[in-house]
């Protein structure tokens, strides 16, 4: 009976190393994926804020689409965290539409970590006193 116990113990040698070899890369990949999600989320917040900044500038009485685009690009230059940025500002007769696109920093390869933010607001119009 002692002989069987010794054999069982010998068969378990190295099992921890094998388990660690399999589990450790999965745990590290999972941690990297969580950090990647944080980078993507931050990039999304930056894109949303840049779109809001562009709308704020372009919706004023004397604002233009170019002013909105410059405001968004200026905000993004200070904030960072986005690559391959494109800003589209459409100032119509009543509404300003802004779209900001970019790529979040890539820590985990294999997926597209792009972000898109849209913002829209009416163009400010003065209301005459007699119409208030």
Question: Quick summary of this structure?
Answer:
The chain is of the alpha+beta class.
Based on secondary structure, the structural category is alpha+beta
Domains, number: 1
Proportion of residues in β-strands: 15-25%
Report the biggest beta sheet as strand number plus sense, adding barrel if it closes. Answer: 3 strands, antiparallel
Helices and strands, in N-to-C order?
A: HHHEEE
| Spans of at least 5 consecutive residues with low confidence | none
Using the CA coordinates, give the radius of gyration. Answer: 27 Å
What is the tally of beta strands? 3
What is the 3D form?
Answer: rod-shaped
Separate helix tally: 3
What's the mean pLDDT score?
89
Proportion of helical residues: 40-55%
Describe the oligomeric state of these chains in a short phrase.
Answer: single chain
- Sequence of strands across the biggest β-sheet: 1-2-3
N-end to C-end Cα span = 99 Å
